[in-house]
Structure of citrate synthase (unknown stereospecificity):
Amino acid sequence: MSEVMHGLEGVVAFETHIAEPDKEGSALRYRGVDIDDLVGRVPFGNVWGLLVDGGFYPGLPPAEPLELPVHTGDVRVDVQSAVATLAPLWGFKPLLDTSDDDARDQLARTASTALSFVAQSAREATGQAQVPDAVVAGAGSIVEQFMTRWRGEPDPRHTAAVDAYLTSAAEHGMNASTFTARVVSSTGADVAAALSAAVGAMSGPLHGGAPSRVLAMIEEIERTGDPLGYVKGVLDRGERLMGFGHRVYRAEDPRARTLRRVARELGAPRYEVAEAFEKAALSELHERKPDRVLATNVEFWAAIVLDFAEVPASMFTSMFTCARTAGWCAHILEQKKTGRLVRPSAKYTGPGARTPDTVPGWNPD
Ligand code: ACO
């Protein structure tokens, strides 16, 4: 096979039992279970168990009390670096020399500690003192512990919103960061190396996304009180409406549908304005592009749910990281079990064979 598949689009590189979006059917299932039956209904810690262990076991242990070793002021950078340090700290061997059971336990320890690092870094970034470990230990689920470490005394409705969001974004098939996690684990590197590499891959704006851009549009509609006029104005200027359209789905993004339900159930204060914006956008997009399915994507309703939980826009990518750690862990383990190194090829299109003296800068003396 010598045809170049740019960006690996359409290339099927792995078999997976974990999840793959149903692009035509507008569905996403974690090990066969529709996310709408999980989001806001099964705690994120158990969804982690479903993805990684195949059952609703309380998969994530409490985070081990550890001080965040890196403080850069950027939560994502702190977490990426801190996760990498766990391998020498906890004596992780390369995956190649680790049993499947030990690898699974290392992933669980690392994932829950990554959540703890996000909360610590968020407090650090805003100059707040850390919440004592004893207070965190008194909280219940893994998400309650996370929110307690971050907020001190979180509003339970905010915790519910964050839990729902984390489940909705826990896994999404062979996206760039999950592919990265699989590539690194296929080399036999340790689990912390694979997870921190995935965090790096997610940091790019083409992947980590920016629901904050949706909120900027909502704020503008709140100001003008005219959703349809706003939508027409954006489209007339040739700009895009944030939170609509998707590279993969040719129907509504199932995560948008589920998070819309969560926002409604939680009574998110921006639910009504968001719904009015969505209605105006969908009708106008349909009128202008009747041949193209342009529906609401996950970022739209994720923005409303995270906004309700008072998550600042600067934390959106880190929240996404917390969520997707579940999918990464599942894929790292699945890849380990294949025992196969990922090593694609490239079609060479550079210069033909030549001698060094034809290369600019040649100076043998
Ligand atoms: N608003 C207005 N027009 C749009 C939008 C939108 N949100 N999305 C696509 N279109 C139009 C394009 O202008 C294009 O029109 P044209 O054929 O006249 O040039 C047509 O629909 C097809 O657009 P593509 O770029 O081919 O759509 P693609 O599937 O490649 O892009 C993308 C998907 C990048 C998500 C796009 O829909 C977009 O920019 N949306 C807004 C940003 C956004 O919400 N991003 C988050 C995506 S969800 C996620 O990444 C997890």
The chain is about 55% helix and 0% strand. The mean pLDDT is 95.
